[in-house]
């Protein structure tokens, strides 16, 4: 699997058929992953395969994250482009890799990739109100709540805000 870009501890690779069993294990972990990303029922091998092949065919900006030190699967992260140079962020870290700093590092890196390489101006997301860890991570990195819809908050960050918050600090990841 070819690395598209990397941060301090994470390699970002394109989605891969080789990782399908890891994807399934992750999204079918309803309590610690699935329910936070809107997946309630079991995801079948067939539908996961379709998801991967459609994402690859359509050139979607979705990456699998792999540890740099041990080639272990961490999770997936996506920037889904919309209009006006805006994209929607999605991330899932598998339960055994949660709370180790990977999610924060990955979101920071993909924001930098989105603003610099994809020329985005704004990144938006929706997060369930009962997901305090994700809300904490997003706010720590500079996202702000812009509203709410049902049981979710809407959040966003603009390129200018991201640069002001992160770029004076040694430019690292
Ligand atoms: C949300 C998610 C991306 C965060 O990634 P992660 O690697 O687990 O998070 P990190 O280890 O980088 O950071 C966790 C931070 O949240 C804090 N945290 C943990 N549980 C918390 C809680 N219940 N309330 C508030 N903060 C919490 C940690 O202390 C840590 O804070 P710090 O960086 O200031 O020390 C990841 O847990 C995940 O994918 N969860 C399941 C799917 C999901 O929720 N996706 C997002 C949907 S919007």
Q: How would you describe what is shown here?
A:
The protein has helices at 20-27, 45-57, 102-116, 132-141, 159-166, and strands spanning 3-6, 10-14, 61-67, 73-81, 86-93, 122-128, 144-149, 152-158. The chain has an 8-stranded mixed sheet with strand order 1-2-3-4-5-6-8-7, with helices on both faces. It has 173 residues and is α+β, with helices and mostly antiparallel strands. The mean pLDDT is 95. It has one domain: Gcn5-related N-acetyltransferase (GNAT) (Aminopeptidase, 3-Layer(aba) Sandwich). The longest helix is centred in the middle third of the chain and has 15 residues, at 102-116. The protein binds coenzyme A. Coenzyme A binds at residues 33, 36-37, 75, 91-93, 98-104, 127, 131-134, 136-137, 140.
Structure in a nutshell:
The protein is 31% helix and 31% strand.
What is the β-strand count? Answer: 8
Number of domains: 1
- The CATH topology is given as Aminopeptidase
**Name of the CATH superfamily:** Gcn5-related N-acetyltransferase (GNAT)
Task: State the helix count.
Answer: 5
Distinct ligand kinds:
coenzyme A
Any idea what the CATH architecture is? 3-Layer(aba) Sandwich
Helix content: 25-40%
Principal-axis shape equals globular
CATH C-level name: Alpha Beta
Q: Which ranges are low-confidence, i.e. pLDDT below 50, for 5 or more consecutive residues?
A: none
| Spatial order of the strands forming the largest sheet | 1-2-3-4-5-6-8-7
Mean pLDDT: 95
How does the helix and strand content classify structurally? alpha+beta
Q: How much of the residues is beta strand, in percent?
A: 25-35%
Order of helices and strands: EEHHEEEHEHEEH
Radius of gyration, rounded? Answer: 15 Å
